[in-house]
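Prompt: For my understanding, could you write out one protein's sequence and backbone structure tokens?
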Amino acid sequence: MISGVVSVRLGSTVSGSSVDSHQTIMDCRAVTAPPTSDPAGDSALVFAAREGDRTAFGNLYARYARMVHGILLARVPPNDVDDLVQEVFLRAMPRLGDLRDASRFGPWLAAITRNRANDYHRQTRAVNSVTESLSEEENAVPAANSSPDTEAALVLGFVRSLPDAYRETLILRLVEGMTGPEIAARTGLTPGSVRVNLHRGMQQLREKIGQSTQRKIELGRRNQL
């Protein structure tokens, strides 16, 4: 999921400790600790990371990389997501001292991620490109012999055309493989909001796929005349 290498070497200071942000991110990529949803555990990791503990920050990276990836994938072109994931963590690391409630690391990081996506669109002057400029190919239903990757890309196109809240939650669930409770714990949304977003988002997704299927059937009939 996370690929690429940060090409800029940044030296940062967190709570008076000198931290090599670039090296920390590289270390983070090697962390394989299973994700948990323990705010108290997050707090301990945040406190340690503030003191320059790269292993602690690596564990935060392992816990939250999927969330960051999913939030970005809901908002920016897929080819740019992996690099932006690392940029988000590079932004977050020197700002850990600004986090007043360490148990709220997930929602805080989610906000940084959304802001980075907004910055991306301001920089590229394409604020509405993701939600309002789906091409004909993205709205087409895959042919019977389409590859799984092609079908996945087309379904992703449908998901990315949904309202923001549904789009983000669905991608975290369907693409990143996060459970509903995990999405709530990571992003700070209530479990009820996650359930509503998933339910309504799936309804709209099915409708879009159904409408596109019907258009394809009608087009096939016209071509046979």
